[in-house]
């Protein structure tokens, strides 16, 4: 037995990968808890990120296989993130930079499994605590009589955004192995998202993911292979996210209450363009962004009804792309767009059509909600540097 133990050779890369995944779980927990109605926990931020940087640097020292283009993208991202943090300190940027260092060449499955395992466990705990009365359930009665429940989270859409990303990540991991039972569970979650929280955007996005899963189940293998090999289709899928990003920013910039078409679009998107326009006019563009004080309905006792009693005005830049552009500046925004492009091109080259389409749905979700750069929601932030291994559609 002792000889067998001695014969086991520890791979340094595997050791540091495991340390990084453990660290990612801690950072994810830190940000996830902030999306709930649980009391805020004080974290020693300096120690937390010093540990992360140490793990990341040692991991890079062990794994010396970085390609030239990876080195350029990696260096650009870390440099810009650090400059961004220097000019306007924000923990989201710091966490992104530290995790970006450690995520290099980590198997995507392992990282997504950590996200999914912790995220679902925490969500079940919070929802049960809410139903038992231990965690506050914020309720919001809309003008049309619909009642939105937050189920222990800061806001109903914060809760349903978690559900959407869980389903998207589950589908990435399972892909061709997804069963009709799983699709049925997704449909039940979609109905819960709508009737329990009246979260239209997340309901639609979950529905789109379900449609992709159904197509995967019903299309014959020959047809699926032909679609994966269709370069035009894949190229279109690569471009759509950037059209969404550019479209949301452009429509916010040109928004005018007097334009009937823009006004109607603004109503459909629940005032996203009007709020975005206000943000551009009030704060303007800058290289490194500005601290913008925002106030929504979330985490306010009594919910929507009591917001006005606080004397505060509602203002939230819910569109992720406008939010990042104004809060974190043009430079970091451009780097994130480059990383998105790298991710899409890698999927194009690997014939990962399903993942390309999942990206499109995520971009739609983030066009209406502000979760693109949030560690608690979007684990695909690091996919430009992550190791894909064998994707299930190959």
TrEMBL record:
User: What highest taxon heads this organism's lineage?
Assistant: Bacteria
Q: Which residues cross the membrane?
A: 15-33, 45-62, 69-86, 115-135, 155-173, 178-195, 232-255, 321-341, 353-373
Q: Print the keywords alphabetically.
A: Membrane, Transmembrane, Transmembrane helix
Protein name per the record:
Lipid A core-O-antigen ligase and related enzymes
**Source organism per UniProt:** Roseburia inulinivorans
């Amino acid at each position: 037995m002792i000889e067998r133990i001695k014969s086991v050779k520890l791979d340094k890369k595997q050791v540091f990968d495991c340390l990084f995944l453990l660290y990612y779980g801690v950072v994810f927990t830190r940000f996830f808890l902030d999306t709930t109605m649980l009391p805020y926990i004080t974290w020693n931020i300096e120690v937390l990120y010093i540990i992360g940087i140490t793990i990341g640097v040692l991991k890079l020292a062990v794994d010396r296989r970085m390609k030239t283009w990876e080195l350029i993208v990696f260096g650009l991202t870390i440099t810009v993130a650090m400059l961004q943090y220097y000019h306007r300190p924000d923990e989201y940027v710091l966490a992104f930079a530290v995790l970006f260092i450690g995520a290099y060449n980590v198997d995507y499955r392992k990282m997504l499994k950590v996200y999914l395992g912790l995220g679902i466990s925490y969500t079940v705990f919070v929802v049960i605590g809410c139903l038992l009365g231990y965690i506050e359930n914020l309720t919001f009665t809309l003008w049309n009589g619909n009642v939105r429940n937050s189920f222990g989270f800061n806001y109903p859409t914060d809760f349903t955004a978690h559900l959407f990303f869980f389903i998207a990540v589950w589908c990435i991991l399972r892909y061709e192995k997804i069963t009709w039972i799983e699709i049925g569970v997704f449909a039940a979650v979609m109905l819960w998202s709508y009737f329990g929280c009246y979260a239209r955007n997340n309901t639609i996005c979950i529905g789109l993911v379900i449609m992709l899963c159904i197509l995967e189940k019903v299309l014959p293998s020959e047809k699926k292979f032909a679609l994966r090999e269709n370069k035009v289709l894949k190229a279109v899928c690569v471009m759509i996210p950037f059209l969404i990003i550019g479209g949301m920013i452009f429509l916010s910039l040109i928004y005018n209450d007097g334009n009937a078409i823009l006004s109607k679009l603004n109503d459909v998107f629940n005032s996203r363009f009007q709020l975005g326009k206000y943000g551009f006019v009030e704060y303007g563009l800058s290289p490194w962004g500005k601290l913008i004080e925002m106030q929504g309905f979330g985490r306010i006792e009594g919910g929507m009804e009591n917001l006005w009693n606080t004397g505060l005005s509602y203002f939230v830049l819910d569109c992720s792309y406008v939010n990042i552009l104004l809060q974190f500046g043009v430079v970091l925004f451009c780097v994130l767009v480059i990383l998105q492009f790298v991710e899409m091109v890698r999927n194009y080259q690997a014939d990962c059509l399903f993942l390309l389409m999942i990206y499109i749905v995520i971009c739609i979700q983030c066009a209406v909600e502000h979760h693109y750069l949030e560690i608690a929601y979007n684990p695909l932030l690091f996919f430009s540097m992550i190791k894909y291994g064998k994707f299930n559609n190959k």
